[in-house]
Design brief:
alpha/beta, TIM Barrel, 8-stranded parallel barrel, 9 strands
Length: 243
C-alpha cells in the first residue's frame, strides 16, 4: 500500500509553509510526487504563494495580501516564525515555485479567494502555468465553484478540483456538476463508499491533512488511490517504506 504522498504547503512540518525552503525539503524526498500550495494575488497582480489572506501569521508584515505590492512583500521575513534557521525566507512568487517543481513534482494549486476578492486570479495563474508548459503537471483547486467555472471557461484543458469540507452535501455530485477531475477533501469526511465511487468515475481524490501514521494506514486500507496530503512526508515515508 503506497498511496501517493502530497507535501502540504511543502514540507511544512519542518520548514515554514509555502516557502522555497519547504519546497526544496519536499523535493529532496524521492517519494514525494505531489505538492499542495496556496496562491493569491498581490495588489500589482503577481501570483504569490501564501495561505492566509493576511500577512500577520507567517511573516513579519501586517495587513492583507491583496493590499501590498510584490516588491515590498519580498522584503518581509516569512521564515523566522518557524525558527532562526529560516530567517530571511521570503514569500515566493508562483513562478519561482513552478520553476523548482517543473518536471519533478506535480502541483495542486489552491486558488485562495472569496467572492470577488481577486479579480483576474484565474487568468493570472492560467497564463503563468501555460507559459511554463506545465498545464499537465498541475491541478487548479478551490472551495469556490465560481472559480472552477471560470477556469474551465478560460481554458477547458486545465484539470480542476473541488475542495470540500462540508458535513452536508454530495461531493461526488458536485464534482460532476463542475466538470472536475479531482476532489480535495478533509480526511475525516472520506468514507469507503465515497472513495470507491470516485475511483470508479476516474476522479483523483486527495485527503488532507494527515500527519499521523494511524490515519495514513486507515486511508490506505480504505482505498489505494487516496492521495495522502501531509505536513509530515517523513512520517509517510516511515509508514509506507519500512523494510
Amino acid at each position: 500500500m503506497q498511496n501517493i504522498c502530497v507535501a502540504h504547503r511543502g514540507f511544512s512540518g519542518k520548514a515554514p509553509e509555502n516557502t522555497l525552503a519547504a519546497v526544496r525539503m519536499a523535493l529532496a524526498l524521492p517519494f514525494v510526487s505531489w505538492m499542495e500550495i496556496d496562491v493569491q494575488l498581490t495588489r500589482d497582480g503577481v501570483p504569490v504563494v501564501i495561505h492566509d489572506f493576511t500577512l500577520d501569521r507567517t511573516t513579519n508584515g501586517h495587513g492583507k495580501v491583496k493590499n501590498m505590492d510584490f516588491e515590498p512583500m519580498r522584503r518581509l521575513d516569512a521564515g523566522s516564525w518557524k525558527g532562526r534557521a529560516f530567517r530571511g525566507e521570503k514569500v515566493p512568487s508562483l513562478e519561482e515555485v513552478l520553476d523548482l517543481a517543473s518536471g519533478r513534482l506535480k502541483l495542486n494549486i489552491e486558488l485562495k479567494t472569496s467572492g470577488d476578492m481577486y479579480p483576474g486570479l484565474e487568468k493570472a495563474v492560467i497564463d503563468l502555468v501555460s507559459s511554463k508548459g506545465m498545464r499537465d503537471e498541475v491541478v487548479l483547486t478551490s472551495f469556490d465553484a465560481g472559480v472552477l467555472k471560470r477556469i474551465k471557461e478560460q481554458d477547458p484543458r486545465f484539470h480542476t478540483g473541488l475542495i470540500f469540507d462540508s458535513r452536508l452535501g454530495d461531493p461526488a455530485r458536485k464534482v460532476k456538476e463542475l466538470d472536475c477531475s479531482f476532489l480535495s477533501i478533509s480526511f475525516a469526511r472520506l468514507s469507503p463508499g465515497l472513495a470507491r465511487l470516485l475511483a470508479e468515475r476516474g476522479i483523483k481524490m486527495m485527503a488532507w491533512t494527515v500527519d499521523k501514521a494511524k490515519e495514513m494506514h486507515r486511508l490506505a486500507e480504505m482505498h489505494s488511490e487516496i492521495m495522502i496530503c501531509t505536513n509530515r512526508p517523513d512520517v509517510w515515508g516511515d509508514t509506507f517504506l519500512k523494510a
